Amino acid sequence: MSKKNPAKAFTSFQILSSKAQGLLRKARAAAAVNSAKAPSAKLPLKTPKESILVHISVRSVVKAAFAVLAVAAGTWVLFHLRDKILLLLLGVFVAVVIDPGVTAMERFRIPRGIAVLIHYVIVLLLVLFLFLSLIPIIATQLQQIAFFISSEVNVFLADPLIALPLVSDDTNARLTLLVQNALQELAIYQFTDALQSFGQNLATAAQGSLRFVAQLAGSVASFFVTLLVVLVLGFFLQLEKERIIRWVRSFFPRSMLPYIDAKAEAIHVKIGQWARGEALLMFSIFSLTLLALVILRMPYALTLAVLAGFCEFIPAIGPLLAAIPAVLIALTQQGFVWAAVVMGVYYVIQWCENNLLVPLIMKRAVGLSPIAILFAMMVGVSFGNTIHPVLGIMLAIPLTTIIAIFLRDITERNS
Predict the structure, then answer these.
(1) How many Å apart are CA 338 and CA 331, to the nearest integer?
(2) Whole-number Å distance between alpha carbons of 183 and 156
(3) Lowest mean pLDDT, pick from 23-27, 84-88, 117-121, 202-206
(4) Spatial distance between the Cα atoms of 19 and 91, rounded to a whole number of angstroms
(5) Is the pLDDT of residue 262 over 80?
(6) pTM for this entry
(7) Looking only at Cα atoms, what is the longest distance across the chain?
(8) CB 319 within 8 A of CB 343
């Protein structure tokens, strides 16, 4: 039996039917299309990666090590000199705050050094007037308050009776007994004796005002030395203003000088606006308080008004500190009703300040929202080991204003 030729057998199959041949061609075409659509199972070829050759020399390693050591040493030095750096920054702050007034005096051909000294003398005279006049007032009022409390307690204990309206007699009797026992057990007489003794000692010390000031300065000598250093730094910074500006500008490349000059001018304008706004607020509170106390015929109206103006420089707690002596004086002069009236007057002045003066003056001057101002104050009291909380509150608004200038610049650049 002879072998069959496969090619001939396949040829004979194709010849058998032309219809089958057409079906075969369609099947091959469909298979080719499906194979083209099907994803390839082959692994992707590896893309060649670029090789980077880094050459590190001994010289570059030494430079990097010295740079790290320099940064660490600089941080250590700044940390240990932070108190001195703070004094320098306070001197810069004083120089910037008085700069608008000094510039205005220079227009009248007053030398810059004399103009700075005039600012210092005015502030010093106001502080001395407030200090030397307020101490005797406080001493006298403490003695009167002690006498007032003692006499009122004696009157009540001699005939203890509380008769509140709209309250039953049984409740009034129990309340009378409770207050009587509380006053007897609280040793109120020892408290009034101590308060009167303190007032007498304060009055005796205040009779020799200069000697009293010297004693007080000796007890807080570090404060006065710090204040003197800050004022001297502010004086010489104001005198050498142009030379210092040229020296600072020399550390920056020429391409950055327009930006540095623009930001320095913006900071100078904002701090000047803040200083003028704060001075206007202090004068407004002084005027309103003086007018109200004169109408009420309060004694020591001028001293209390000056105190209210100065305390306005201390945000948040300043008006409360200014109201305490006035309320105590009203309490000893006319009793509880008059003290409540004076307290209400101070509250109205504070309301006018918060809702009228501050939005019109300070917000327009510094451009900060009340939330930002309150948060800045809270941050200012958080560094008690480095800066006094009162000083931190006072510097919070101008420093926040400076930071807001750069943040606004970054936001505008990103937008």
Answers:
(1) 7
(2) 10
(3) 202-206
(4) 106
(5) yes
(6) 0.59
(7) 152
(8) no
